[in-house]
Amino acid sequence: MPLASHDVFTAPDWWRQAVVYQIYPRSFADVNGDGIGDLKGITSRVPYLQELGVDAVWLSPFYPSALADGGYDVDDYRDVDPRIGTLDDFDEMVATLHAAHIKVVVDIVPNHSSDRHEWFKAAVAAGKGSPERDRYIFRDGKGEDGQLPPTALRSIFGGDAWHRVTEPDGSPGQWYLHLFAKEQPDFNWDHPDVHADFLATLRFWSDRGVDGFRVDVAHGLKKNLDRPFDAMIRVDDGVVDAGDGQHPLWDRDEVQDIYAEWRTVFNEYDPPRTAVAEAWVQPHRQARYSSPAGLGQTFNFDLLRADFSADDFHEVIDRNLKAAAEVGGSTTWVFSNHDVVRHATRYGLPPVPARAGAPGAGEAGRGNDGKQWLLEGGDPAEVDAERGLRRARAATLFMLALPGSAYLYQGEELGLQEAGQIPDAARQDPAFFRNREIEIGRDGCRVPLPWTREGSSFGFGPDGAHLPQPSWYADYAVDVESADPASTLNLYRRALALRHELECAEALEWWEVSTSVLGFARPNGWCAVTNFGTDPIPLPEGEVLLASGQLAAGELPGETTVWLRR
Ligand code: NOJ
Ligand code: CA
What separation in Å is there between the alpha carbon of 39 and the centre of ligand 2? Predict the structure, then answer.
């Protein structure tokens, strides 16, 4: 069990209660002035990360890519995009982070490569029936001339999940599967080459000092496409059966065999490399990914999907702590990432009717239900930014006192709102272009960070930013917030410093559970209490350590969290 004196950096179980800060490299800091964040930019900001007090950074993909999906379309898994840097820059970045006692986690994208990957180019060039095609999922089309897709499967980004290639002789040919954009062909994980190549990639980065991996679409690698499914893509379509008692695409049992293989590679290193699964699966299946024989940890998106409500938080936390304890894993908490509307904005959106069956849709659907958190940036005119931020600060401070590890997304420490109003012409996300009737896409949370109130692109870089930054970004700049003791940045800094001091065994005991208030105590007397309601309540007894907002005498105001020592 980790104890207060335990050095997070050197302990092999460093990940169990780590604070991991997600960097979206293209939008973090740009040193060479091309408007795109780079690895040197990350290196230059290591003092900032150190002062913030994070234990690890997780880098979204920085590999060579045409950026059809923000870098999740990888051309080469063992190199750096020249627009972002070089392998030498990577080594320098890792060394600088490690010198600051910050671990490094990189994103691994095993479900699909990009269509510019050398294997995919070879597959198209080699033609039907070739061994090269067998590393991906090619099928003949239906209809007289094979002109119709093999099945009616839809891509997660909208449109068909099959794309037709032109054969080497110029004739219209076979179709390949892409669950995401058409530039992201799915690998065939029944092929030994695919297995071997990913093991080589894990070793390549581990040898360069990477401490862990974030596994993209970890639940999707194995497929059974024998039956012609219609339009089915959703993880929660649990009723769909491939004829073998399992869902044809998601969370199939065999996927764990891959991770058992990966685990042997992780354990070749000292300390063993770690992994966290991005697995959008039914809650009762999450533990499979967090077993020590597999990846070891899973993102738990339940808090992200939950309403700002005591009932929802209580249920989610209880369930996840139990599930993690059953497999001996530690749980994870996350409110924001590069795929969802920032939580300071979600919590400020007006109520919407809950979408029936939406994951986490609360009764009133208070702006955080399935539709709002992912599909819509929200009309900025309708966002109550002040309230959103108040609730986000309260929710985050509550979360940071929980056992388990906390994943933060760049900019949330500034209380950044979603940059909802991006002109169509400036948007980049394929989800916007393929699915525009229903999705605004994810660009609004990927806008480059504001570092300074003045200057080009608010200090992001010397010459502009690849996505337009709104003028109100100035108020959230790092220099502005550093100078303001009540800023969100200073709240995060104090919270992370205290969290290290107070680190203790991974347990909690509830001592207040009502419809509007939640309070728990950790084994060493560290307590967190959140008033989810809007009216003040009497301040619980104890030494006040930190609060997410201004405390009134003897009162805990609405939508506020306090940390106490009792
Ligand atoms: C999940 C990633 O977080 C997301 O950004 C990406 O679009 C898909 N996986 C496909 O790789
Ligand atoms: Ca750059």
Answer: 8
Q: Could you tell me what percent of the chain has a pLDDT over 70?
A: 92
Residue nearest to atom 4 of ligand 1 (CA): 339
Q: Are residues 482 and 512 in the same domain?
A: no
Please check the confidence at residue 235 and state whether its pLDDT lies above 80: no
Tens digit of each residue's pLDDT (9 = 90 or more) over 547-564: 999 998 999 999 999 999
Q: Give catalytic residue positions.
A: 216, 268
Please indicate, yes or no, if residue 2 is contained in any of the structural domains: no
In this model, does residue 78 exceed pLDDT 80? yes
Query: Looking at the 3D structure of the chain, how many domains does it have?
Result: 3
Is the domain of 269 the same as that of 395? yes
pLDDT at position 325, please? 86
Domain limits for position 168: 118-177
Please provide the DSSP assignment of 467-515 as one string.
SPPPGGGGGG-HHHHHT-TTSHHHHHHHHHHHHHHH---S--EEEEE-S
Question: What CATH number does residue 560 fall under?
Answer: 2.60.40.1180
Look at the block and give the residue holding tokens 């420490």: 413
- Whether 374 shows a pLDDT value over 70: the answer reads no
CB of residue 109 inside a 6 A radius of ligand 1: yes
- Measured by CA distance, the residue closest to atom 6 of ligand 1 is 72
Provide Rg for the chain, Cα atoms. Answer: 23
In this prediction, residue 353 has a pLDDT band, given cuts at 50, 70 and 90, of very low
